[in-house]
Amino acid sequence: MEMEELITQITERLPAIGGVRLVVGIDGLSRSGKTTLTSKLLAHYEKENIPVISFHLDDLIVERERRYGTGKAEWYEYYQLQWETEWLREHFFGQLKTAEELALPFYDPQMDRRESRKVALPETGIIIIEGVFLQRSEWRGLCDYVVYVDSAQEQRFNRESAEAKRNIDKFQNRYWKAEDYYLKSQNPQSHADFIVRN
Fold first, then answer.
1. Which UniProt keywords apply (predicted)?
2. Which domains does the chain have, with CATH numbers?
3. Interatomic CA distance for residues 182 and 82, integer angstroms
């Protein structure tokens, strides 16, 4: 029922945008279920023959040397250095409504380098942006409609691999502190248009 309501709310906004693109943001902390929700939305709109494309913000992070071992606190590296937030604001978010295609620096985790790739945007339809910290101050207001996927920390941690769980210090010092900062400083649930309880 929750999924049906979400799809209805998104679909109802399509006529209102006058035949242009609707930018939908899927926000939520790590392992909250953002990717699963995005996949469901993509499948639905593809089935309905509504043009749709998605972007995953983790594909647009910077190289390791720019976000690890910088001398800054680990949580700060994750929250502030993981992405080129201002560049993305101007060259990614700021172009979604008007550009025919985007040239974006996609990160290759195996090679630890970024490679520019061009992505064509649909003339009309839905663009889904999935990513943690999506409602940070630098990016707030750049999506037409925002979904926040809410999931408790214990549940999210249980979804990690056994290998990842063994490195709990990284979660405590890097991920969880950054997430706490995001929740306290940005209060993302209060700004979302729709909340999914996962």
1. Kinase, Transferase
2. 2-197 (3.40.50.300)
3. 14
